[in-house]
Every structure is written in C-alpha cells, then in structure tokens.
Specification:
single chain; binds magnesium ion; binds adenosine-5'-diphosphate; 256 residues
C-alpha cells in the first residue's frame, strides 16, 4: 500500500532546521495534498526525496527500496519524478524537443547508436516521438509544440513541466505548486489532468496553497509545520483541526 516512505528526515541549513524529523507515508494510487505554512519545509522535503539535497538524517524509501541520498537521475529511473520550473529548460529548444530530451533514459547510449544509425536506434527514436505526441495530445499542447519555452504562457509551461515528467514513465509525481500563477480556467484543466493521471494509476504528491483546489483534488491531505509532520486526514477534518489552524495563524502573526 505504501509507495513512498519518509522516516525521520532532517536537514539543516547552518543553524536552521529546515526539516526536523519529518515522517509520513504516501499510499500507492492516491492523489495526496502536502500543505503547511510558508517555510514549513515542503519544498526542501521534495528536494531531499528527488535527490537534490542529501538529508542530514533519516531514511526515504520508494516502492520498498531505499533511495536516501541517491542522485536525481537514479531517483527518476526508479519511477519517482518531480517537476521543475521551466526556468531550467533550454531557451532555444522547442517544446517538443524538451519532451524528447526527457524521454531519453540513456542519452549516452542513444547518441552512440544514433551515430551508428542502427535500425534499433531508429525504432527507439520513432517510439519516443510517438510517446511525446501522445503526451502533447493528452495535455492539449498541439499549438505550441514548435514554440520556445520563453514564448508560451505560464499555464502552458506548467503543462510542459508535467509533460516532461510523464516522458519518464513515472509511477509517482511530486508536484510543487503546479498551479501557481496560472489563470483559473487552466488551473481547473490542470486539476482534471491530475485526476486523470491518478485514475491511470500514477500516485501524486501535490504541494498547493489553493485550499478549494486541494479539497477538490486530494484523497487525503498531509500537513507539515516547522520541518515536521503535523497531521493527516480528509481535507474537511484537517481544515477544522485547531492545531493546523494555529500553525497557519502563527505564520500570519509572525509575518504581520
Ligand atoms: N537553500 C537554502 N538555504 C538556506 N535556507 C533555506 C534553503 N531552502 C530553504 N531554506 C529555509 O528552509 C525553510 C523551509 O523552506 P521551504 O522548504 O522552502 O518551505 P516551504 O516550501 O514549506 O514554504 C525556510 O525557513 C527556508 O527559508
Ligand atoms: Mg515551497
């Protein structure tokens, strides 16, 4: 049942305990919301899971295998991927080529066989094109396939980020505010895509500040505060939990 397991994960930035013994499990096949006040450590936890940061302490397991401290490409190869802001993309590379690039599991090997020009390499390339087109169609990106990422809307960038992640055939997606700065129509569309992906068996952990959206999309919600797990449950139960309300209020007060 458990697909992702986080046990006592800690990470210090100098004297700051960004993560302070965070522990929770994510159930396979669910769309789970990860919420908590600003600075709670949600993004830092994603960075630890996806291999960008090595935790100071604790253990992370995916599909029953330890992935703590593995480099990002190994984590991705295990079937777990997070989306990245497209700021990390290549400005002179088309939307379609971005998808193709992410579908290359072994770029070294494919470049070599591409040079040799084997029939197998051509078949692989054609399969990759088919896969990228299927993703373009499902995310309705047809009109922008030849655009550079700098020339597409914020919402389309978010869809492209999801599309790139899908090119790796993930079992699980980690999404860090995939609707931030997106217009309301496209927010709902992205929400529908996430529900459809869940129906196809992809497990999703979603960081999002829009509470009505979390309520609509998520089977269950996990709350983090001060670098640690605080609560989990159905959205309505979480929303009426006074400890959770106080955690949010505490941040509002200290910001005021
Ligand atoms: N690279 C970093 N260097 C130093 N401090 C950081 C770094 N990244 C995050 N932090 C700090 O760690 C804490 C958790 O941040 P973050 O994970 O971004 O929270 P959230 O995503 O829940 O808003 C915050 O206090 C933040 O300022
Ligand atoms: Mg964050």
């Amino acid at each position: 049942m458990t697909l992702l397991s986080i046990k006592n994960v800690s990470l210090n930035f100098g004297g700051l305990k960004a993560l302070n013994g965070a522990s929770f499990d994510v159930t396979r096949g669910t769309l789970t919301g990860l919420i908590g006040p600003n600075g709670a450590g949600k993004t830092t936890l994603f960075n630890c899971i996806s291999g960008l940061y090595r935790p100071t302490d604790g253990a992370i397991a995916f599909a029953g295998k330890a992935i703590t401290g593995l480099p990002p490409e190994k984590v991705t190869a295990s079937g777990l991927i997070r989306t990245f802001q497209l700021a990390r993309g290549f400005p002179r590379m088309s939307v379609f080529d971005h998808l193709l690039l992410y579908g290359q599991h072994q770029p070294g090997e494919s470049i070599l066989s591409g040079l040799i020009g084997s029939a197998a390499a051509r078949r692989r390339e054609s399969a990759l094109h088919d896969k990228a087109w299927a993703i373009v169609k499902r995310l309705k990106l047809e009109r922008i396939v030849n655009h550079f990422p700098g020339n597409v809307s914020g919402g389309q960038k978010k869809l492209l980020e999801i599309g790139r992640a899908l090119m790796t055939d993930p079992q699980m997606l980690l999404l860090d505010e995939p609707m931030a700065g997106v217009n309301p129509t496209l927010v709902n569309e992205i929400g529908d895509h996430l529900l459809a992906l869940k129906e196809e068996g992809i497990t999703i952990l979603l960081i999002e500040h829009d509470m009505p959206l979390i309520r609509r999309l998520c089977d269950e919600v996990i709350v983090m505060a001060e670098g640690a797990f605080m609560a989990r449950g159905k959205f309505d139960d979480i929303a009426s939990d006074t400890r959770v309300q106080e955690a949010y209020l505490g941040v509002t007060r200290s910001c005021a």
